[in-house]
Amino acid sequence: MDWKVLFFGLVALVFNSCKEENSNPQVDENRIANMEKKLESTYKPGLGELMSFIQLHHAKLWYAGINNNWKLTEFELTEINEALEDIKSYNADRPEIKEIGIIEPALQNVSKAIMQKNSKQFEESFTELTVSCNTCHVATDHGYIVIKTPDSPPFSNQDFRVK
Ligand code: HEC
After folding, report:
1. Which residue's CA is the closest to the ligand 1 atom numbered 40?
2. Coil, strand or helix: which one is 137?
3. From the CA of 55, how far away is ligand 1's center (Å)?
4. What's the mean pLDDT when you consider all of the chain?
5. Are residues 93 and 129 in the same domain?
6. What is the domain range of residue 11?
7. Can you give the pLDDT at residue 6?
8. Residues 64, 73: Cα–Cα separation, whole Å
9. What is the pTM of this model?
10. Which superkingdom does the taxonomy of this entry point to (predicted)?
């Protein structure tokens, strides 16, 4: 047999079997079920994990602010805002999310204080922020999780002063 005939015969055979496989509804269903299984086991941060992350940046925000390290305060505030966005997308199934707006006015006031590099306004809005964390904890039956202004830096290996 001519090799060309053999070659094109093989190509046609492979092509047809692929076509058949693609149009087989059972195969499609299995593929979809497999993908769904993979999606279910994909890592998704929990609400408690994201809250712990926010707790850390809440503390760092304080030490950045009292050191007038405005660039760092901006960074820490962004971390908090990003975590809140993650909560909205990853934990949309949690009923507590309805209360998340409680924190918005305080976050905006902290942001204003940072933009104006105003220490007094920063401290006041930070207190307002902490109160709003606790207001939401109470509103969502987690009143036993009490946040306060930190009295020691969260880490000894980070310098919060302006370089
Ligand atoms: C939606 C309203 C809401 C807001 C606003 C909120 N929290 Fe929470 N927080 C929760 C809920 C609900 C939980 C319980 C999460 C869980 O089930 O694991 C929680 C848990 C926590 C925990 C415990 C995490 C752990 O596993 O130990 C900390 C710490 C925390 N929040 C800090 C904060 C801080 C700091 C702020 C403000 C900057 C804040 N939260 C704002 C609702 C809120």
Report:
1. 133
2. helix
3. 8
4. 91
5. yes
6. 3-40
7. 62
8. 5
9. 0.84
10. Bacteria
What is the total count of domains within the chain?
2
- pLDDT at site 102: 98
The CA 17 to ligand 1 mean position distance, Å, reads 55
At 80 the pLDDT is: 98
**What's the pLDDT at 18?**
57
Q: What is the DSSP string of 17-74?
A: HHHHHHT-HHHHHHHHHHHHHHHHTS----HHHHHHHHHHHHHHHHHHHHTT-HHHHH
Residues in the ligand 1 pocket, defined by CB under 6 Å:
47-48, 51-52, 54-55, 58, 96-97, 99-100, 102-103, 129, 133, 136-137, 140, 142, 145, 147
pLDDT per residue over 80-134, tens digit each?
999 999 999 999 999 999 999 999 999 999 999 999 999 999 999 999 999 999 9
Which atom of ligand 1 is found nearest the CA of 103? Answer: 5
Q: What residue's CA is closest to ligand 1, atom 27?
A: 52
* Residue 32, in any domain of the structure: yes
Of the candidates 50, 51, 58, 64, the one whose C-alpha atom is nearest the C-alpha of residue 129 is: 58
Residue nearest to atom 10 of ligand 1 (CA): 137
Kindly report the protein residue whose alpha carbon is nearest to atom 30 of ligand 1.
51
